Amino acid sequence: MEKFTDDDVIVCRCEDVTLGQIREVIRRGYTDPEEIKRITRAGMGPCQGKTCRDIIIREVARITGKRIDEIPVPTYRPPSKPIKVGLLAEESD
């Protein structure tokens, strides 16, 4: 039977990012949640980080020794979907 560790815990369910992946990126020196988001895609899924953002911030604080209120909060960006320009023109009629 395979033994799982806390590094195997999924932090970002939307993008399937584990706690181990987050910890590795932090150990490599990326301590800004925006950087972590861009490198791992954690927080870029449909929920836009609503479930993983706080976990990532707590992990950055734990590893770096900073207080949670010293960690910048990443911005929410609504998912975008390309649409045809013609659809916009139809709406203005």
Q: What tags apply to this protein structure?
A:
globular, Arc Repressor Mutant, subunit A, two-stranded antiparallel ribbon, mainly alpha, 93 residues
Explain what the structure shows.
The structure is a single chain. The protein has one domain: BFD-like [2Fe-2S]-binding domain (Arc Repressor Mutant, subunit A). Helix content is 40%, strand content 5%. It has 93 residues and is mainly α. The chain has a two-stranded antiparallel sheet with strand order 1-2. The chain has 4 helices and 2 strands. It is globular and about 55 Å long. The longest helix is centred in the middle third of the chain and has 12 residues, at 53-64.
Short recap of the structure:
This protein is 40% helix and 5% strand. It is mostly helical and 93 residues long. It has a single domain, classed as BFD-like [2Fe-2S]-binding domain (Arc Repressor Mutant, subunit A), CATH 1.10.10.1100.
Tell the overall outline: globular
Work out the radius of gyration: 17 Å
**How helix-rich are the residues, as a percent range?**
25-40%
Helix/strand order: EEHHHH
**Strands in their spatial order, largest beta sheet:** 1-2
How many strand elements? 2
CATH architecture: Orthogonal Bundle
Instruction: Give me the CATH fold name.
Output: Arc Repressor Mutant, subunit A
Mean pLDDT: 88
Distance between the termini: 64 Å
Question: Which oligomerization state do the chains in this entry correspond to?
Answer: single chain
The helix-and-strand class reads mainly alpha
